[in-house]
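Data card: per-record layout.
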Amino acid sequence: MMKAARFSRFGGPEVLEMVDLPDPHPGPGHVRIAVRAAGVNPSDWKKRKGLMDQELPQTLGYEAAGVVDELGKGVADVAVGDRVFGFSADGAAQAELAVLLSYAPIPSSLGFPGAAALPVAVETATRALDQLGVESGTTLLVNGASGGVGSAAVQLAVARGARVIGTASPANAEYLRSLGAAPVPYGDGLAGRARALAPGGVDRALDVAGSGVLPELIDLAGGPDHVLTIADFAGAQQYGVRFSRGDAGRAIDALSEIGELTESGRFSLPVAQTFPLHQVAEAHRLSELGHARGKLVLLVD
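The structure for this 301-residue chain is written out next.
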């Protein structure tokens, strides 16, 4: 049996509990890891509040890093004892053991917490940039550029040769500059401030924050076809903007490619804070406040 985070009713962080569950085993092409670190994402607390799947009980966690301890049939690219990070096969990464559906070796410069912070942010940002067609010479505006997905999108776009303008609070302006973006403060008058940096508007806009600015982004980017949101489903429907859903389709390419960018110093995702697994409720509380710069990560010893 292993310890895992779970909830049996919807509600606040207090509904989370540590329970004993049967050890999972990997199917063909999958691996099992002894989890050392697991990322916390907004989707975790949205699940817990009943805003996503309706079945109960539910386990938690989409991303983890650890040491391979069991191989599924046909796995030949890693061995037992290897350090890997990747996506949980069943949304149950916040546990002592997890089966990974897609995975990659942990870059040698990263520890387990840093690696566990990568999968969701890197896959989401890569998918969004691909769907927007961001390439060398593109001017991209990222709304909500200082969080996990936002800062990943900024760095990946810069690595592609794009010019990036990022919205954030004034407190995060220097951080955005360090990532290679030109910072613009949030709030009323956003479009005007962005036009001061890009008088002709921008080529593409990515909304990570879901802060109700799609009309301004459409105006800046010259139409809804040039805008994509990962955070504002209702706004996407209202304004004819593409909403990008999470799926692990292209995840593994993004995971295996991020190692080289990380090792060459062109990509990093800060870990804002770590918590032991049994303090999962506290991590949720902080995640829901939405102020953490970088990722919140649970540690399993």
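Known properties of this structure: The chain has ten helices and 15 strands. Residues 217 and 253 are 29 Å apart (CA to CA).

See the next section for split statistics.
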